[in-house]
Amino acid sequence: MHERLNEAEDIELLTLPEEQRKDLNARLAKVAEADLTFLCLLDEASKELVANVPKNARICDTSTAHRVNPEWVYGFAELSGQREKIKHANRVAVLGCHATGYIALVRPLIEQGVLLADYPLSCHSLTGYSGGSKSMIADYQNPERPQALDAPRVYGLTLKHKHLPEMQALTLMQNPPIFTPVVADYYSGMLVTIPLPISALQEVKSGEEIANLLSDYYKGNPLISVHPFQDLPEDGMLSANAFSGKDNLEIFVYGNESQILLAARFDNLGKGASGAAVQCMNIMLGRDEVSGLEI
After folding, report:
1. What positions carry a catalytic annotation?
2. Where is the signal peptide (predicted)?
């Protein structure tokens, strides 16, 4: 976020010196000084600060602490009616990276009645290691790292990943998906996929109809694009790091007469994190929605 906003002529960044960053009173004083505050804290630290700031303080929280809190607005502007809610909100919870792709693919199908809310979904999500904290970045960039880091690694093996509550709540599903997150040896970028049998769909009976539905749903949104049905890359493969450094998201739909595959590709640090946070800030402050973003 700092990189995206540092060169903006209409933004003044207020920061704390290193020695004051865990001082609650210093934080509160800086919040009082700002028009809007980004929280990039652990959940408990975020909750502590929010509990002590006035209700009219405008907060964008990037932690998982408030994403399913009904008193907060979820920061996915492209969902039906959500942009207007963000515009007038004092409390916005920035969405999680894996959740971004999953919600982008599933929510329109639920809203349009094409997928029943009790359908048992599964989701596979491949991410670069930058989404795993400073310690994971250091591990991957260590020249003496263990050989295990050379290959993709499945995690979240308890099936209780921290993004699951928002993945359920913001898609209006009755249950969370069976979710398989995978981290691999590249810095940033994300590819979220959801397989569906045609028999699971209501009313529509082809992948092409699904692609058209998603295209209509996101029409006019500058940060989300939907490819035509069966639009294959030149080599026939989707690379998860293709949008590294970008703040937009693209959707693909593939399939045959019995199955379809939904895919969302974006940067876990972009539309899946800081890019979405800046987008929310832009909406809240009345700036151009994509100001400072890379598209």
Report:
1. 97
2. none
